[in-house]
Design a protein that fits this description.
Layout (H helix, E strand, L loop, with lengths): L7 E5 L3 H11 L4 E5 L2 H7 L4 E7 L7 H11 L4 E6 L14 E4 L4 H37 L2 H6 L1 H20 L6 H14 L3
Parallel strand pairs: 1-2, 1-3, 3-4, 4-5
Helix pairs in contact: 2-3, 4-6
Length: about 190
């Protein structure tokens, strides 16, 4: 893959045949990195990695341990556990974004990677939206209506908030009503934390 803007997918898989299969499935649309164990994965991990496909059961560092270290390091990547282990209640404490049980198909892998990339973009929009709304509220609490009306910066801020609201609303299925929109965002903000 030679496209410098292609999303980066890190495959962490100790079975070479499985790792190569995932690589072949994904290499046309993504920059793919392959690590054969947890230590190698942590060495390959950097700010460019968008999605990690992480085998849960590996010799040495387990996928669970690698996941913990990824989250402790503060990387913004999305992590899909890809494993033959049937999920149990212990997954409630884990900070992954998706859980795939082997064997998986090409379409399933592609769909998971795409969903995680969309979620990353959506989270970025949501974070920007909350940040700008906070700034807007602060200005509205401290400036007079006349001062706000005269400010080009405030007008640009309001326009950007409206754009983000439209983008987020479309992502959420076209919520039109402001109260519904805000309630939905609050629900997502409270319920989607890992």
């Amino acid at each position: 893959m030679s496209d410098p803007d292609a999303p980066v997918v890190l495959i962490v898989e100790d079975e070479p045949d499985v790792a190569e299969t995932y690589n072949l499935w994904l290499q046309d649309g993504y920059e793919v990195r392959v690590a054969q164990n947890g230590d190698e994965a942590l060495d390959m991990l950097d700010e460019d990695v968008d999605v990690v496909l992480l085998d849960r059961m590996m010799p040495g560092l387990s996928g669970d341990e690698v996941l913990s270290r990824i989250r402790e390091s503060g990387y913004e990547c999305r992590v899909a556990m890809v494993t033959a282990v049937e999920p149990d209640f212990d997954i409630l404490e884990m900070g992954f974004d998706s859980y795939l049980t082997k064997p998986i198909r090409s379409e399933q892998l592609h769909e998971t990677v795409e969903n995680l990339l969309e979620r990353s973009a959506y989270d970025g929009l949501l974070q920007e939206y909350y940040s700008l709304v906070e700034k807007q509220a602060t200005l509205e609490a401290t400036k007079s209506s006349a001062e706000l009306a005269e400010s080009d910066d405030y007008e640009e801020l309001t326009e950007r908030i409206d754009e983000l609201r439209d983008d987020l609303s479309q992502t959420l299925g076209g919520i039109e009503d402001d109260d519904d929109f805000i309630a939905t965002l609050r629900g997502l903000g409270n319920g989607d934390e890992h």
